[in-house]
Amino acid sequence: MTEPGTVRPGGRTARVRAAVLRAAEDALVEKGFDGLDLADVARRAEVGKTTVYRRWGTVAALLADLLTDMAEQSSPRAETGSLLGDLRANAGLVRRTLADPRQGALFKAVIIAAACDERAAAALRRFYRTRIAEWAPCVERAVAQGELPAGTDPHEVIKAVSAPLYYRFLASGDPLDEAAADLAARAAVAAARAGAYVRP
């Protein structure tokens, strides 16, 4: 997940990319995927249309780059010294991102896009694979230390932390608060300790 307010430094190329991606975020939040238009993004970013068309070419390619950037800018994995502490940190990051007015709206637009466009779906899957891989080592460490059963699938444990938070975000409308994040982390740890995520 992406912490709100992160900024990438760099030269002119990086500044152009950052401006275009920020403009794409704005357009997604305001208009959704169907309203995303490269010419409009160029206008919002105050860069030439040819620059945007030459570098990204399609809306799907722009969305893929936006998701790549979001994954790269996400906060690194926490190192709290305990599995529960690490998964609480993960759940807290997911919760803060989804509860943030801008980031939450952006993720909702991207998820809607992924539901109706295979290229957007592929980009979203790559984003989540990156984030899950970032957090999997905390589960691997717990397995190595005997805190979890041998054969526990680290990726499934990490997915189990965020899944109930996304359910609240997209479906149930239940509060997306710190208590929900804590419950998600504790439930994932309990299930993992019970062997629920041991590979067949």
From TrEMBL:
DNA-binding region: 37-56
Any one GO molecular function term: transcription cis-regulatory region binding
The keyword DNA-binding belongs to this UniProt entry's keyword annotation: yes
Protein name listed in UniProt: TetR/AcrR family transcriptional regulator
Domain HTH tetR-type: 14-74
Organismal lineage: Bacteria, Bacillati, Actinomycetota, Actinomycetes, Streptosporangiales
InterPro entries, per database record: Homeodomain-like_sf, HTH-type_TetR-like_transc_reg, HTH_TetR, Tet_transcr_reg_TetR-rel_C_sf, TetR_C
Source species of the chain: Bailinhaonella thermotolerans
Keywords of the record: DNA-binding, Transcription, Transcription regulation
Record-linked Gene3D superfamilies: Homeodomain-like (1.10.10.60), Tetracycline Repressor, domain 2 (1.10.357.10)
